[in-house]
Design a protein that fits this description.
The complex is a heterodimer of chains A (55) and B (204). By secondary structure, chain A is α+β, with helices and mostly antiparallel strands. A two-stranded antiparallel sheet of chain A has the order 2-3. The longest helix of chain A has 10 residues. Chain B is of the alpha/beta class. In chain B, strands 3-2-1-4-5 form a five-stranded parallel beta sheet. In chain B, helix 1 packs parallel to helix 6. The two termini of chain B are 16 Å apart. The chains are: A alpha+beta (55), B alpha/beta (204). Chains A and B meet through strand 1, helix 1, strand 2 and strand 3 of A and helix 7 and strand 5 of B. Strand 3 of chain A pairs antiparallel with strand 5 of chain B.
């Protein structure tokens, strides 16, 4: 999880690489009930669906 | 989070640790891990269609360890060429192969040999002739330029040590107008410096 980006960082990178129509479409509580739940909650880690189109 | 992992992290060691973790998942998906696996998790927490998953070889779903649901997003059409980066045991890729049909192609790339072997067997068991798997790295995809209509990935790109390289590769292989359907973990806020330099938090 330490390699995850904030969505704003990812969106900026995708824009720089020529992507458009970047949309976060869903969030998931992917660590609920795991041994990592406390850590992921502490650091605000979540699963996300993101869609983008290459121009 | 910087786009490259901290220089205090040994990237070769990190790659070995990631490969070891996912080899273990492929060989023993019901073992002890700090993340969820399997079709029940996929259906209950990520919104996959349980009946659709029941139709896949159990080996392809048991080792599933994604964090979202790229196939829930619009963008895959009949005849498309779909690339799954970090295809693992093949669950998302097999579902994509069914959607693109016999006139489309589904290509899986993964770093972990045990996952690739399992996925090849599952594709054979499904009778899907439009699926192929390649050993490779997200930061150097074994895929031609401008050759892919849709890139999917699920819980993998956060593991890459150079995000600009990995996403540049996606831009390279996608055709103009191609779609990225990404599921991955994201941060609500920047990690503290100590956490960002913890190799155990990188590989998990």
């Amino acid at each position: 999880m330490a390699g995850a980006l904030q969505l704003v960082e990812l969106e900026q990178l995708l824009l720089e690489l020529g992507f458009a129509e970047i949309q976060e479409q869903a969030r998931f509580d992917a660590f609920r009930g795991t041994s990592m739940e406390r850590v992921t909650t502490k650091y605000g880690v979540y699963g996300a669906n993101l869609r983008a189109i290459l121009r | 989070m910087p786009l490259q992992c901290p220089d205090t992290i040994d990237t070769a060691q990190l790659r070995r640790e990631i490969r070891d973790v996912y080899t273990s998942v492929a060989q023993n998906p019901t073992g002890e891990f700090h993340f969820h696996r399997g079709p029940q998790y996929a259906a209950e927490l990520l919104g996959y269609d349980g009946d659709e998953l029941d139709g896949l070889p159990p080996a392809s779903t048991a080792s599933f360890a994604g964090v979202g649901n790229p196939l829930a997003m619009d963008g895959i059409e009949e005849g498309d060429t779909v690339l799954d980066i970090g295809s693992g045991a093949g669950m998302d890729l097999l579902l994509a192969a069914q959607r693109v049909g016999p006139t489309g192609r589904a290509i899986g790339v993964d770093l972990t040999l045990a996952m690739l072997e399992s996925a090849v067997q599952s594709a054979t068991d499904c009778g899907l002739a439009n699926v192929e798997f390649r050993a490779g790295d997200a930061q150097a995809l074994p895929v031609d330029d401008d050759s892919v209509d849709v890139v999917i990935s699920n819980g993998v790109l956060n593991l890459t040590t150079d995000k600009r390289a990995a996403y540049s590769e996606i831009a390279r292989v996608l055709k103009p107008g191609g779609r990225l359907l990404l599921a991955d973990i994201a941060l609500a806020r920047a990690l503290p410096e100590g956490a960002a330099r913890d190799i155990d938090l990188w590989s998990g």
